[in-house]
């Protein structure tokens, strides 16, 4: 009986020892397991390679060389940045004075005449032989164009012609050389001091009739800005100004 008791105690001790070892092993395994850590994603910079420049130099001239609007500036486009140090990038014959200006990228050249190009004129445009690209490329051939200007809309006649008038409610007639955009004409017309009036169009002629009699000892200043355009969208060649005043008190 005593031996049996001792045997049972040994079995219990053995089992307890095994449980403790299992717990110890489990703890060790947990310690050895790798942990997952979130890693912040760092954006990767993308480097774009510059677009290679063309091997040859080219220029684009306006497409309206046969009917160029005389009031417009002349604009040339190049296929790569140019050397902008050349004082006169191109020559015009017959000579017309004006200002050259380059856009910041050196690829667009604008020539603005001091006065408008002549109407129904032919001009010869030749690039300066010293004009080159910023990288040193030159044109393989002489660059030359013939440009013919068209007709701009004009105010060709106004009635009464002079500044002194005798009628206190005159019919003022403005004759244009082509069909005009009527809304643009009215928006461009200014009269000082303010004068209310009726209008009537007949073909290319505008008639302005004051709704009240004009005042004596008053100068009426008329201004038609060159923002007025014809039916094609071409603006007036210039701004027109004139004035009227009553010559004498003929109508009390």
Structure commentary:
Residues 26-32 have low confidence and may be disordered. The strands form 4 sheets. This protein has a 4-stranded antiparallel beta sheet, with no helix packed on it. Strands 8-10-13-12 form a 4-stranded antiparallel beta sheet, with no helix packed on it. The protein has a 4-stranded mixed beta sheet with strand order 9-15-14-11. With 252 residues, it is α+β, with helices and mostly antiparallel strands. It has helices spanning 2-32, 182-188, and strands at residues 59-60, 74-78, 90-93, 98-102, 108-113, 122-127, 144-148, 155-159, 164-165, 172-176, 189-192, 197-202, 205-210, 220-224, 240-246. The chain starts with a helix and ends in a 6-residue tail after the last strand. The radius of gyration is 44 Å and the shape is elongated.
């Amino acid at each position: 009986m005593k031996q049996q008791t001792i045997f049972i105690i040994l079995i219990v001790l053995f089992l307890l020892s095994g449980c403790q070892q299992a717990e110890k092993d489990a703890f060790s395994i947990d310690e050895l397991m790798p942990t997952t850590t979130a890693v912040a994603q760092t954006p990767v910079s993308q480097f774009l390679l510059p677009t290679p420049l063309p091997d040859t130099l080219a220029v684009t001239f306006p497409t309206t060389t046969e009917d160029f609007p005389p009031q417009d500036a002349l604009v040339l486009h190049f296929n790569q940045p140019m050397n902008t140090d050349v004082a006169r990038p191109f020559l015009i014959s017959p000579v017309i004075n004006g200002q050259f200006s380059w856009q910041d990228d050196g690829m667009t050249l604008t020539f603005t005449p001091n006065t408008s190009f002549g109407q129904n004129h032919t001009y010869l445009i030749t690039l300066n032989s010293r004009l080159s690209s910023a990288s040193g490329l030159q044109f393989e051939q002489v660059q030359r164009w013939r440009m013919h200007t068209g007709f701009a809309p004009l105010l060709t006649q106004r009635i009464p012609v002079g500044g002194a008038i005798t009628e206190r409610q005159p019919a003022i007639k403005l004759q244009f050389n082509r069909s005009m955009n009527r809304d643009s004409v009215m928006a461009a017309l200014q009269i000082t001091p303010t004068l209310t009036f009726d209008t009537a169009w007949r073909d290319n002629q505008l008639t302005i009739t004051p709704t009240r009699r004009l005042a004596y000892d008053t100068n009426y200043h008329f201004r038609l800005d060159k923002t007025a355009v014809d039916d094609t969208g071409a603006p007036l060649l210039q701004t027109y100004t004139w004035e009227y005043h009553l010559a004498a008190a003929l109508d009390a």
